[in-house]
Specification:
By secondary structure, the chain is of the alpha/beta class. Helices cover 27% and strands 22% of the residues. The protein contains 14 helices and 25 strands. The chain has helices spanning 17-27, 46-49, 104-112, 120-130, 157-168, 200-208, 257-267, 273-278, 312-316, 319-332, 417-434, 437-440, 456-466, 516-537, and strands spanning 7-13, 34-37, 67-68, 81-82, 131-133, 147-151, 184-187, 189-190, 192-193, 196-197, 214-217, 220-228, 231-239, 242-254, 270-271, 285-286, 298-306, 344-348, 359-364, 380-387, 395-397, 408-410, 443-448, 468-469, 499-501. The strands form seven sheets. Strands 1, 2, 11, 12, 13, 14 and 25 form a seven-stranded mixed β-sheet that branches. Strands 7, 17, 18, 19, 20, 23 and 24 form a seven-stranded antiparallel β-sheet that branches. It has a three-stranded mixed β-sheet with strand order 5-6-8. Strand 15, helix 8 and strand 16 form a beta-alpha-beta unit. Helix 1 (17-27) runs parallel beside helix 6, helix 1 (17-27) runs parallel beside helix 14 and helix 11 (417-434) crosses helix 13. The protein is globular and about 65 Å long. Mean pLDDT is 95; it is low at 1-5. The protein binds flavin-adenine dinucleotide. Flavin-adenine dinucleotide (FAD) binds at residues 13-19, 37-40, 83-86, 90-92, 94-98, 100, 221-222, 255-258, 260, 264, 340-341, 471-472, 503-504, 514-517, 519.
Length: 544
């Protein structure tokens, strides 16, 4: 099959975390013809595959959409960067590699909200099926799956000190945040194998890309869903200067992510009628929930000057250490180049009244003023707090009918009083850990917030001035059965036939942790649903 073929069983829009999983699973039997459309290019950039290269991808337009939010009213009207992968693998090709699933209670809550089939017991088999856990198989972990998960190769004295300090502050050590309990401090695991990033493009798409029933079309921007009355029949897309149509006999599946899936629905006339009419567009279905309910994890980073030259800043700024790190990586796939966005960290409860951890700490052995900026010239490290279950809700809205114009993105960070209280409590908790003996010996200075920042009002002001995303936007095509939900529990768009959304945008509520693993799970489960429904309805051609 070549890229010009215009009729498929399934058209999948977006080859990101979810899209690559779908492409693999839907083509595995050889019975279905699948088109995978991706706005970005191939994942050849060398820094994609070296974990530490993550920092180099924040500002690279070749692999990143480089979105920014609208001014955030509760963050002093600052615009917040919103990086998203624009490349095969999507955001799993540019993310920080941390492998965290969230808490069992997250999924049980999805089920309690009315989404049958999404409790933790329901989704655990999909987490296990996806996983190739380097530590081996267990009740909660799988081996042999496409997604490699492994430990950071070596302990680091600063991380050891952080974990010990957390224990001194009364929190447990935790060697598996995806194990029986999430609470405590420890090292993160990464989606990596032998020091290489394991995006879904690597784990899922590579093994599938030569299948004759899969057409991967890159540098192709989907501009509209083709709808016949209230039925999806295909996708219009732009490649270079050409507009093409791809028909889908079975289904159109949106996997464009939290910003682009609602954008494409709105561009196709499926969204809030008032918004669409204000832009002079036809309304196919008035769905106020499309683009609503945007949730994200806000992180507030505390910066420290270190007493010893043992941080990544010192490696990067020394020619000798840099060369040594490069050689270690090339020869042994070990050393500083193998670390992701966080090395160690933890999940903590800010109050005994909270049943499960409500804040996450990322402990990072380098420091810079902002994510992706040059590392400081002095030894430094960062510990950040993020609130795990934000109540603030924002939106994604198109600004025009032009698919190449970025949508308006406004997460409305800290607009809820609970979120403000929790971030302040989290900062106080983190300071308590950092002031324990194990950590104190490494701290020459708390650079941000400085020592003048003492009471709750100061800490909130600091959060407003310095808070930024930890890159986990979700829920703009929320799953549910209520009037503003966008997809049902089988991820079918309400009221539109043969159209599904399968990506991070369907989460009813953001999970309590980093989002990539849960989106792989969603896509694994979503693929099963697509294939089951095709089988039951007998509507997809069986034309191997
Ligand atoms: C900088 C950064 C760091 C992160 N760190 C971590 C981490 O350490 N651990 C973790 O678990 N999570 C992390 N995340 C979050 C996680 O990677 C994302 O939640 C996840 O990858 C999103 O998956 P998705 O399938 O919903 O969307 P994406 O992976 O973003 O995929 C969407 C794809 O659709 C394509 N697309 C969009 N619109 C169109 C269109 N109109 N036509 C064609 N193609 C289109 C995009 O180019 C993209 O490839 C991070 C994210 C970022 C950006």
């Amino acid at each position: 099959m070549n890229a010009d073929a215009d009729s498929f069983d399934y058209s999948v829009v977006g080859a990101g975390t979810a899209g690559c999983v779908l492409a693999n699973r839907l083509t595995a039997s050889g019975r279905h013809q699948v088109l995978l459309l991706e706005a970005g290019g191939h994942d050849r950039h060398v820094w994609i595959h070296i974990p530490l290269g993550y920092g180099k991808l924040f500002t690279n337009p070749k692999v990143n959409w480089l979105y920014t939010s609208e001014p955030e009213p509760d963050l002093n009207n600052r615009r917040i960067i919103q990086p998203r992968g624009k490349v095969l693998g999507g955001s799993s090709s540019i993310n920080g590699l941390l492998y965290i699933r969230g808490q069992p209670a997250d999924f049980d809550r999805w089920r309690q909200l009315g989404n049958s089939g999404w409790s933790f017991d329901d989704v655990l088999p999909y987490f296990r099926r996806a996983e190739d856990q380097a530590r081996g198989e267990g009740a909660l972990h799988g081996v042999g799956g496409p997604l490699a998960v492994s430990d950071v190769c070596e302990p680091h004295p600063l991380c050891e000190a952080f974990i010990e300090a957390a224990q001194q502050a009364g929190f447990p050590r935790n060697d598996d945040f995806n194990g029986p309990t999430q609470e405590g401090a420890g090292y993160f695991q990464l989606t990596a194998r032998r020091g290489r990033r394991w995006s879904t493009a690597v784990g899922y798409l590579r093994p599938a890309r030569r299948r004759p029933n899969l057409a991967i079309v890159s540098n192709a921007l989907a501009s509209r869903i083709l709808l016949s009355r209230r039925r999806a029949v295909g996708v219009e897309y732009r490649q270079s200067d050409t507009t093409r149509l791809a028909y889908a006999n079975g289904e159109v599946i949106l996997a464009g992510g939290t910003f682009n899936s609602p954008q494409l629905l709105q561009l196709s006339g499926v969204g809030p009628a008032s918004l669409l009419r204000s832009l002079g567009m036809d309304v196919v279905a008035d769905m106020p929930g499309v683009g609503a309910d945007l949730q994200d994890h806000l992180q507030v980073r505390m910066q420290y000057r270190c007493t010893e030259r043992i941080t990544m800043n010192d490696v990067i700024h020394s020619w000798r250490h840099r060369t040594g790190a490069g050689l270690r990586y090339v020869l042994f796939r070990k050393g500083p180049l193998t670390i992701g966005a966080g090395y160690a960290g933890g999940f903590f409860r800010t109050s005994p009244m909270v049943a499960t951890p409500d804040v996450q700490v990322h402990f990072i052995i380098f420091s810079a003023d902002t994510a992706g900026a040059a590392l400081h010239s002095f030894p430094g490290f960062i510990a950040s707090v993020c609130q795990l279950r934000p109540e603030s809700r924002g939106f994604v809205r198109i600004k025009s009918a032009d698919p190449s114009e970025p949508p308006a993105i406004q997460p409305r960070y800290l607009s809820s009083p609970t979120d403000r209280d929790t971030i302040v409590a989290g900062l106080k908790l983190l300071r308590r850990i950092m002031r324990q003996p194990a950590m104190r010996r490494y701290i020459a200075e708390e650079r941000a917030p400085d020592s003048g920042c003492t009471n709750d009002a100061d800490l909130l002001a600091f959060a407003r001035a310095a808070g930024t995303t930890v890159f986990h936007p979700t829920s703009t095509c929320r799953m549910g059965g209520d009037p503003t939900a966008v997809v049902d529990e089988r991820l079918r768009v309400h009221g539109i036939d043969r159209l599904r959304v399968i990506d991070g945008s369907i989460m009813p509520t953001v999970v309590s942790g980093n989002t990539n693993a849960a989106i792989v799970m969603i896509a694994e489960k979503g693929a099963d649903m697509v294939l089951q429904d095709a089988f039951v309805q007998g509507r997809v051609s069986i034309s191997a």
